[in-house]
Design brief:
This protein is α/β, with parallel strands linked by helices. Helices cover about 40% and strands about 20% of the residues. Helix 2 runs parallel beside helix 3 and helix 6 crosses helix 8. It is elongated and about 65 Å long.
Length: about 230
């Protein structure tokens, strides 16, 4: 049974598309925000993604770009944006097809099936689109998302900026004063630094062997300790 991820902030559209596709023999997962969609993509494999452009958090074009860093699953944009430039933008961002609203459910199903057939021809050794071989670590600086070992780590803007501060300056020790100035522009108390570092550590702890770990240099501040590679101590 091919698995489809539907992403749309309109609950009625999601329900109508889901019900119809289920009757046609598809397994369907629904997400009404970009964050939920990325979370599902992080945990599961899908054979096709039907993606709206105008979402309440991340726009569909950005989600498509992030998705293309981890999988070649076919993506069909389904949007009320009908200008030629929007369609071109969707295809350039990594989409495989683009439909405008309103549309017929029969055509939607036909286009999904067409993409699945193309995917099977291009990847005969797999059932449908799957994860692409890639490195262990990728930073999407535009969307403030990092991908470690095929897992998306979603960070707040300040968490992401703090991570970049450490990542771009490996082993450099930053005092709390320096971090406050760079991340909060001096408009915060010292205590928030420790809290933010703790939150960031918790989110990245699983990937210490890939990106390193944030360490406390006693009395001096914090730094990113590089990962220990196999064969090295």
């Amino acid at each position: 049974m091919p698995q489809v991820l539907l992403v749309d902030d309109n609950i009625e559209i999601l329900a109508a598309n889901r019900d119809y596709l289920v009757k046609q023999g598809f397994g369907v997962t629904c997400a009404n925000t970009g964050i939920k969609a990325l979370a599902y993509l992080n945990e599961n494999s899908y054979d096709c993604i039907v993606l709206d452009v105008l979402l309440p958090d991340l726009d569909g074009f950005s989600i498509c770009k992030v998705t293309r860093t981890i999988t070649d699953t076919p993506i069909l944009f389904l949007s009320c944006l009908e200008e030629a430039d929007d369609k071109v933008k969707g295809l350039i961002s990594g989409g495989d097809d683009y439909m405008t609203k309103p549309y017929s459910l029969k055509e939607l199903t036909a286009r999904i099936n067409a993409m699945l057939r193309r995917s099977m021809r291009s990847s005969p050794s797999t059932s449908y689109g799957r994860a692409l071989p890639r490195g262990d670590f990728f930073i999407d600086r535009d969307n403030k998302i990092i991908n470690v070992m095929n897992k998306n780590v979603l960070l707040s803007e300040r968490e992401f900026n703090l991570f970049l501060l450490f990542h771009d300056n490996p082993s450099k020790v930053f005092s709390k004063e320096e971090i406050l100035e760079r991340i909060w522009y001096g408009n915060a108390e010292h205590g928030v630094v420790a809290v933010m570092v703790l939150k960031l550590r918790r989110k990245l702890d699983f990937a210490k062997n890939v990106i390193g770990g944030i360490e406390n240099s006693y009395g001096a501040g914090y730094h990113l300790e590089p990962p220990v590679r196999e064969g090295k101590q």
